[in-house]
Amino acid sequence: VKKIVTSDTKAEDLVGVTWVVGDLRFGRDISDSSFQSSWDDDWHFVDEDVPVQASGIRCVEGDLSISNTKSTADLSPLANLAVIEGDLDISFNDQLTTLTGLDGITTVAGNLIITNNANLTTLTALDGITTVGGDLEISFNDRLTTLAGLD
User: Is residue 65 pLDDT above 60, yes or no?
Assistant: First the structure.
């Protein structure tokens, strides 16, 4: 088991990781800093796109958050991901146009939140999801005109 210190986490630390115990967050923190202390066990990659080194991850036991990234337009490094045992939150990613790369996800045990992605045009990569255990929120994605992919 490899312990990662969140303040010094680098993309290289994901090499060989297939199972994440706890939360995994990509992007800049936009939440109230008073909540930061509760993230002590998260793997938090500040200001990074989803790195290619994430390609081995198959399960996240906590939440997966891809929020407020600078230039994430490619989620393909997450192509092997199948299960998220917490929430999947994809929000405030201005460059994101598609969710391609999330095609392998079958289960989101918590909430599925897709909000404020100004250029997102399709949800078709989510058609493999058979279970969402919590709420489904899709809002404020200005260029999204259809829910095709959630069939």
Answer: yes
* 141 and 122 Cβ atoms separated by less than 8 Å: no
| Sheet order of strands, 19-20 included | 19-20, 59-60, 83-84, 107-108, 131-132
Amino acid 70: pLDDT: 74
Stated pTM of the model: 0.86
| DSSP state letters, 7-53 | GG--GGGGTT--EESS-EEES---S-GGGGGGGTTSEEETT----GG
* Digit-coded pLDDT (tens) for 96-141: 999 999 999 999 999 999 999 999 999 999 999 999 999 999 999 9
Neighbours of 110 (CB within 10 A): 18
Token pair of 102 as six digits: 């999330």
Note the CATH number of domain 1-29+43-150.
Answer: 3.80.20.20
Using CA atoms, how far residue 107 sits from 36, 38, 84, 96, 127, in Å, is 27, 25, 6, 22, 11
- Residue 78 gets the label, from left (phi > 0), alpha (psi -120 to 50) or beta, of alpha
